[in-house]
Each structure stands twice: as structure tokens, then as C-alpha cells.
Amino acid sequence: MNMNKNSGQNLSSLLLDWYQENKRDLPWRRSKDPYSIWISEIMLQQTRVETVIPYYTRFLQDYPNVRALAEAGEEEILTSWKGLGYYSRARNLHRAAQMIQEKYQGIIPNAYEDLRLLPGIGDYTAGAVLSIAFNLSFPAVDGNVLRVVSRIAGWEEDIRDAMGREKIGHIVSGLIPPGRAGEFNQALMELGAELCIPKNPLCTDCPIRSCCSAMSTGRQSCIPVKKQAKSPVPLEYWVAVLRRDKSVLMQYRDQTALLGRMWGFPMLIKMLSAEPLNEFTQQIGLELREMRRLGETKHVFTHQVWRMEAIEFIWEETQNELPKGLAWIPFDKMDHIPIPRAFQKIIKLCDIGV
DNA sequence: TACGCGTGGCC
DNA sequence: TGGCCAAGCGT
Fold first, then answer.
1. Separation of CA A352 and C1' C8 in angstroms?
2. Distance of alpha carbon A263 from alpha carbon A67, whole angstroms
3. Chain A window 176-235, residues with Cβ within 7 A of nucleic strand C
4. Regions of chain A short of the pLDDT cut 50
5. What digits encode the pLDDT tens for the residues A127-177?
6. CB of A306 closer than 8 Å to CB of A298
């Protein structure tokens, strides 16, 4: 990048001034507590600010410090996390809290190497916690920063590869004003979130447009360069709905499955199985007699699209015990177990519990 | 390195 | 509508 020291200082102070005037009032910005900052950074991974806010507020009430989180049960934490997605984040948070409790007496470490050893903390999150919570001079290169800095620098290589990230991180390191790492990193991210957005960036309002290579060459729409994402694989499922009194039959999903170790409904992939009644009878271990179509719903993941056709089964009592992983869940307990959004859609579609 | 991993909003 | 995108990490 062609940027001398003066222009770098100019850029940094222009950006910091803009940030002071325009930063959003977000819950985690009202705290300097490293625990709160850490929780917010994990929740914000690949997740929009507006989505995170209610989860963040509730989570900090339920688990106000490292000890509370470390001592909680995983299922309870997942229940608090349900609907937010990327559930390994919640499990990693739990494990990391236990490690911090044991190894550091509940105090969040402020060394890069120590943070990086905690599950769920990668290069970005370590930099974010160190700079925002401890004001240490580390870069925090997220998607916003990749976009902002690649535009400033006119960087037209793929930003996803390690080379690109390293280059951007190096540029950011050189721009951090002494003693203001937290503000500066947040200012870069805020600019990326509010003005230097992916499509149709608001360059006329940008405080650092005079330093921007993409602006000067009119190539804002070409930068950053990204490989095209693969489109999700479509999958079609039957979903079994069985009711008994004020409860419904649910399935604790296998560890290795998508949405593993959370609760869903028995499912069969359509593919070649033409007889859901027979196949569900085997899977569920109850005598199924009739089926009634309840409706269809769709759920989109990053890499899969599920089309789910819900079928209600009329069934008969047998002596058989339910197969492992299946359980009758009372309607009033459904709020207290981790049920991901895909299956909440089934509950809503079928008016289960109403 | 490339892929698996959730969800919701936007156009 | 469907594809794109969002404060990434683990493997």
C-alpha cells in the first residue's frame, strides 16, 4: 500500500473523530468488563448486531460472570442460545469459562497466546478482546475491516486467504494510534458496518474518502474480491409429529448430525423411501396406523436447504420402550430445552402446544 | 486450504 | 424469489 506516515496518522485521527461523533450506542459499548466484551464478541461472530442485542442482554443476566457460566449446565446454556445459531459457539464459551475458572481463577487472561488457547477464540476475537477490553495494541481483523482496508489499499486479491488477512492485519497494526487500539478497531468496524458497506457504499459521507484507493479509481464495487460461495444443497424430509396428552414426541439429535445434541423431531430423508409410514414405524418403535399431512416449511442453512413436510401419525400403545434419543416432551417443557429454529418452525406450523 | 456450521434481513 | 451478506472458528 502506498501510504506514508503522515497520511496514516491523518487517516487514523479522521476515523477516530468520525467514530466519536457517529458510534452507535450498543449495550457492550457501555461496559469495560472483559467478560462482557468477550461474550459480545462471540455472539457477534457472523451475526448481526440487532439479532445479538436481546440475546446478549439476557445472557449477561443469566450468566453475569465467568464463574456463573462455568458452573451452569450445557443444556441450560444452549437453551439460552437457541435461535442464535452456530451452537458450537455456546459450547466453546462454556468450556472456555471452565478453563478460565480453573487456570486463571475466573480472570480473563490478557495475553494473546493465552486467549488463543481458549476454545472459540481465534485471531480476530483475541485481537478484539485485547484491544477493546485491555486497550492493548492488537489488530482485530473481521469482515468489516477486510472490506474497509482492502478498499483503502486497493487490494484486489482474494481477501479470504491467509495472505490477504495477514497483509490487512499488518496495515491495521501500523495505523493504530498509541493507547487507542480499542476505539480504533471499533471505528474501523463501525465504518464498515455503517458506510463502507458491501454494496453501494456511502462514500460521500466517508471521513477517509481522500485516503481511499478504491474511491479514487472508482472500484468500490470490485473490492473486496471474494470467491463465489457455493449454493446450498437442497434436501427434502418427512418430519414425524406424534402427540400424546399434552406432550409431543421429540428426538435428541446425534452428536455428529447437523444441529447435533439439540432437540428436533424424527425425520426421514425422502430420497428413495416412498413409505414414510413403515419406515417411521421402525425408527420410532410405535405402531403407526395412519398419517395426515400437516404442511410444509423450509429452512435455509449456509450449506443446505431443508424442505420439511410435517406428517401427523395416528399410533397405538405398545409394550415397546421408546428407542434411545426419543422422548415425550410436555408442551410446557419445550421452552426449556434447546430446540433450534428449524424445528421451532415445525412447532409453529403444526400448532404444537397450542 | 476448504469446508461445515445457523439465522435473519435485504433487495 | 433466491442469493448475498453479517464483529469467525475448528478441523
1. 35
2. 27
3. 186, 189-190, 192-193, 197-199, 226, 228-229, 231
4. 1-5
5. 999 999 999 999 999 999 999 999 999 988 888 788 888 899 999 999 999
6. yes
